[in-house]
Specification:
There is one protein chain. This protein has one domain: Metallo-beta-lactamase, Chain A (4-Layer Sandwich). The chain contains eight helices and 15 strands. The longest helix is centred in the middle third of the chain and has 12 residues.
Length: 279
């Protein structure tokens, strides 16, 4: 268990599918981290084009994408876990930038994947901010995925949703391709089914918001994370969405290990790159 980037999960893995941590913070503002946002790129296979999937888009994410040199204008899919502001607060800025901030107008569609209520949520954003949310000059396709549903993203990629006990609509995501896999819990309370759903992913981005002494039904703490990760057995567990008072006062990765998880784990930080390619 380590709070630094593990060996074998750095720049050398960038040729294949890759996770880049864009934002790993919470609702509490911090100078060194945006709120929840994760970038997963996978190369094209055959005639299929590369895919760039952005999981959540919390406050500060757009600036972090630019700092990290990621091709935010080429995002192909956006997957939303739930509608709390620390997970979707940068969406208006992203859509505005996609309409007005690119050197050449975009024509490629953007598919937004979300839980129940995603269409209504984006319609309300459009009502508040303007038509560029739903009509930015290129097609915006909104797909609501109920828990247990899976959809083909093309190029052998498959996105699947799973219910989480955080909000009424909240979901976790699992993305798989021909040679990679990725899991993201979003925000979640304890769930006996979530670990098996994530079984064997290359990287599992898992919230660990609070200390076990503060354990609640709508967030995870080290003991619950250890239980989930033991069932999932990811190649790498990435601990994220850790409230600053908890992260600065405790070795969170060690607490997860002491709670019974013996796999490879690290603490998320902006710019962490993890190879997702199998093998």
């Amino acid at each position: 268990m380590s709070e630094t980037e593990p060996a074998g999960h750095g720049p050398a893995g960038r040729a294949g599918a890759e996770l880049v941590v864009v934002g790993c913070g919470t609702v509490v503002p911090e100078a060194d981290r945006a709120a929840s946002s994760y970038w997963v790129s996978s190369p094209g296979t055959g005639s299929a084009a590369p895919a760039h999937v952005l999981f959540d888009c919390g406050p500060g994410a757009l600036q972090a994408l630019a700092r990290l040199g990621l091709p935010w204008g080429e995002v192909t899919d956006l997957a939303i876990t739930h509608f709390h502001a620390d997970h979707v607060g940068a969406l208006p800025g992203l859509f505005f930038a996609l309409k007005h901030g690119l050197p050449r107008p975009r024509s490629r569609p953007l598919t937004v994947w979300g839980p129940a209520g995603a269409r209504g949520f984006l319609a309300r954003l459009a009502g508040a901010y303007g038509d560029f949310i739903l009509a930015p000059g290129f097609p915006v396709l909104i797909e609501e995925l109920p828990p247990g549903a899976a959809r083909d993203l093309g190029g052998g990629r498959r996105l699947e949703a799973h219910k989480t006990p955080h909000t009424e609509e909240s979901v976790a995501w699992r993305l798989e391709g021909e040679a990679f896999s990725f899991g993201y819990t979003g925000d979640s309370g304890p769930s006996a089914e979530l670990g098996p759903f994530m079984r064997g992913v290359s990287a599992l981005v898992c919230e660990c918001s609070i200390h076990d002494s503060e354990a609640a039904d709508n967030h995870l703490s080290p003991a619950r994370v250890a239980e989930l990760a033991t069932a999932a057995r990811p190649r790498l567990l990435v601990l994220t969405h850790i409230y600053p008072h908890f992260r600065t006062q405790h070795d969170v990765a060690r607490l997860v290990a002491e709670a019974g998880y013996d796999g490879d784990a690290c603490i998320a930080r902006e710019g962490l790159r993890v190879s997702l390619t199998n093998g």
